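Sequence design from tokenized structure. All designs in this work follow the same two-part layout: the structure record, then the generated sequence. An example of the structure record is given first.
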């Protein structure tokens, strides 16, 4: 039986092989056999005559049975096709299964695969489709259908194999090439682009394929290739404004700001009321360092009758980013956000930014007021809580910072930054046990955050739990071996204990090299020199720390101790007294002053 039960086969003239004909053939065979047997009884010399007719008739019988089976298979196949055309796929499957009882033609397995697929029985569909292609491995239709079944079943890799084999049979099979390219887009974009290029070179420009090439290339930041694809699309549709916008955006992403500016400028002239185009053009000007031109575009947008809150926010945000380069724009930027808030008084975004900006210029009462509004309007926003907490912290309102972050902790228990700032505030308030609890939670949420580990190490150190503090610092240095804050704090902890001073010196030296104006780092280095007995060097670095702005009680006391070792007791007592003015609770310091010795 040949594949697909062709129409010629369906209407052939072999119907004379009916059951009656088949019975006659069998009857004649039996009669012939009987005659032969009968003749064989008369003489042994007739043996040859007896054997030859039997072989001939047996072969005829086999052919007759085979033809009959094919006819029966064909009948069931036709009946199955009729049921399939009616949409009765279950009944069609039964007929095709009956057909398989009489013939194993691949067309029957192919038909079963199609009908199982229609019933969404993907495993059975794939099983029968696979048998069909195994029997007739060069049949492209069978492989296409099997690939489609695999796609429906979510077996995309198996589908790709079938499309690849079709291309091995027919390298010009366009549908398979396109399907294989689509399947390769996520796992192997280079292969997908190569296949799309082959399709374009063979078949010429195609809107659908060029669009896929452009989008795929842009997604993988292959901007030049994406630009080329979209420009070819533009040749097919020269007046397509959406394509022109896409090309302008690709120019921008590729850093080709001049080309982006020209195209956006042309588009905005043709569409003067399109605020998005003016915004895009302003962004190009910003990247080119032409802030004044960008401002003009923003003014054009803001002069429009209706400007959405999102658009106003984008413009105000652009001003905010520009303040990082030019602090003179801070008043203008604050004005932009105030206009935004006046227009949209319930929007939390201008509240947050006005809080940040006022905190930046140390206008703490205003910052606090805006940030209070922000956390009330958007209590889910961790940034608002973080900014408000730091606003209090910077004013040394530690109890307010703690109260704020405790409220935030109740609302946002899984936010890392809430626990971090709360732990830092607890440490400043000398609530070291609470600090450890909060900072351990922060580290649990962000195990690789070096700031959290540094703060936790400091909290352990304050509790004299040096084993944990050292292990925490070491853990932080494994993540970032050159993190200055950890290097300094760890070094100071070791120096205070007078242990591993060589290691402390090595770490402190690196911290100072990274930030030679950091008073805390300078004091640590000087104090390590003190511990090593190098008092002249210690005086030099601790005085640098004071000059750099660190006039804490600890640093002043350190300098007093250095002078005591240098037998300059008058200077020593002077600095001890200055330290006591800042920390009147330090009993050991009082004792030094009273006795005039270390």
């Amino acid at each position: 039986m040949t594949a697909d039960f062709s129409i010629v086969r369906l209407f052939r003239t072999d119907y004379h092989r009916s059951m009656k004909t088949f019975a006659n053939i069998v009857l004649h065979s039996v009669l012939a056999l009987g005659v032969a047997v009968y003749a064989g009884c008369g003489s042994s010399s007739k043996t040859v005559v007896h054997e030859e007719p039997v072989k001939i008739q047996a072969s005829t019988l086999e052919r007759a049975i085979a033809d009959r089976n094919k006819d029966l298979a064909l009948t069931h196949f036709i009946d199955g096709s009729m049921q399939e055309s009616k949409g009765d796929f279950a009944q069609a499957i039964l007929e095709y299964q009956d057909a398989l009882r009489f013939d194993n033609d691949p067309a029957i397995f192919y038909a079963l695969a199609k009908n199982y697929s229609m019933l969404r029985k993907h495993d059975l569909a794939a099983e029968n489709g696979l048998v069909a292609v195994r029997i007739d491995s060069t049949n492209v239709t069978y492989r296409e259908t099997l690939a489609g079944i695999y796609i429906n079943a979510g077996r995309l890799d198996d589908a790709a194999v079938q499309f690849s084999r079709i291309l091995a049979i027919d390298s010009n099979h366009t549908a398979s090439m396109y399907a294989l390219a689509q399947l390769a887009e996520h796992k192997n974009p280079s292969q997908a682009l190569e296949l799309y290029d082959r399709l374009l070179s063979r078949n010429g420009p195609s809107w659908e394929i060029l669009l896929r090439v452009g989008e795929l290339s842009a997604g993988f930041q292959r901007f030049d290739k994406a630009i080329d694809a979209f420009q070819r699309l533009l040749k097919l549709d020269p007046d397509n404004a959406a394509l022109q916008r896409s090309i302008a955006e690709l120019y921008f992403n590729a850093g080709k700001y001049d080309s982006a500016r020209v195209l956006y400028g042309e588009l905005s002239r043709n569409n003067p009321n399109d605020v998005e185009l003016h915004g895009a053009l302003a962004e190009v000007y910003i990247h080119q360092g032409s802030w004044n031109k960008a401002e003009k575009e923003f003014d054009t947008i803001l002069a429009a009758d209706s400007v959405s809150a999102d658009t106003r926010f984008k413009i105000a945000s652009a001003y905010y980013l520009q303040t990082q380069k030019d602090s003179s724009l801070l008043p203008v930027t604050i004005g932009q956000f105030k206009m935004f808030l006046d227009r949209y008084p319930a929007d939390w975004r201008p509240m947050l930014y006005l809080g940040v900006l006022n905190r930046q210029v140390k206008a703490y009462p205003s910052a606090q007021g805006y940030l209070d509004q922000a956390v009330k309007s958007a209590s889910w926003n961790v940034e608002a809580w973080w900014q408000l907490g730091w606003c209090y912290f910077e004013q040394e309102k530690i109890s307010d910072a703690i109260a704020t972050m405790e409220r935030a902790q109740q609302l946002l228990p899984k936010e890392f930054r809430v626990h971090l700032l709360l732990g830092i505030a607890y440490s400043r308030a000398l609530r070291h046990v609470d600090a450890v609890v909060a900072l351990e939670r922060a580290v649990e949420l962000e195990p690789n955050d070096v700031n959290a580990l540094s703060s936790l190490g400091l909290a352990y150190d304050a509790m004299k739990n040096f084993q944990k503090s050292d292990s925490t610092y070491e853990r932080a240095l494994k993540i970032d071996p050159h993190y200055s804050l950890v290097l300094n704090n760890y070094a100071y902890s070791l120096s205070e204990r007078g242990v591993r001073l060589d290691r402390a010196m090595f770490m402190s030296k690196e911290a100072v090299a990274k930030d030679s104006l950091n008073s805390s780092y300078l004091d640590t280095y000087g104090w390590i020199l003190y511990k090593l007995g190098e008092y002249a060097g210690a005086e030099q670095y601790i005085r640098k720390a004071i000059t750099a702005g660190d006039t804490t009680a600890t640093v002043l006391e350190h300098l007093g101790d250095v002078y005591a070792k240098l037998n300059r007791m008058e200077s020593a007592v002077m600095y001890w007294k200055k330290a006591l003015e800042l920390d009147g609770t330090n009993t050991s310091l009082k004792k030094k002053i009273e006795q005039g010795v270390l």
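Residues 47-85 form the longest helix (39 residues). We note this feature because it recurs in several other targets discussed in the main text.
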